[in-house]
Amino acid sequence: EKPPPIIPLIDTAKRLRAVPTFTIVDGNGVPFHTYDKDSAGGFGYFFTDYVSATYVLEDAQKAFAKAKSAEKDDGEENDDGRGSIGDDGAGSVPDAWGAARIVTLPLDVVLQLSVRKSKSVATNGKGK
User: Fold this and answer.
1) 1-16: b or e for each residue (b if 16 or more CB lie within 10 Å)?
2) Which terminal Cβ of the chain has fewer Cβ within 10 Å, N or C?
């Protein structure tokens, strides 16, 4: 049997609530994440330093602008006005980076998000 924590979890959560972290979100407040095809998992990013979050956001916005510019220079803009990305250039560049911003989250919330497992399962087109 597992022994109880030395410091009660409620006390630990209260202490962690005072520690700010930063994350990059889209215009709707949804955190950006990456997807790993091998593990079929999404990974969100949280920063303990605002400068690091700013660096990543600026770098992503520059890459977004470059993809949009290159796409427009090719004269192959998609019908919806978005650019293209991917190895073959067939993927659409989402406009989410245009409204992206950095928000603050308390560390206790970040830890809850990091240990929570998704209960949804992709069906990959099964049943169609």
Assistant:
1) eeeeeeeeeeeeeeeb
2) N
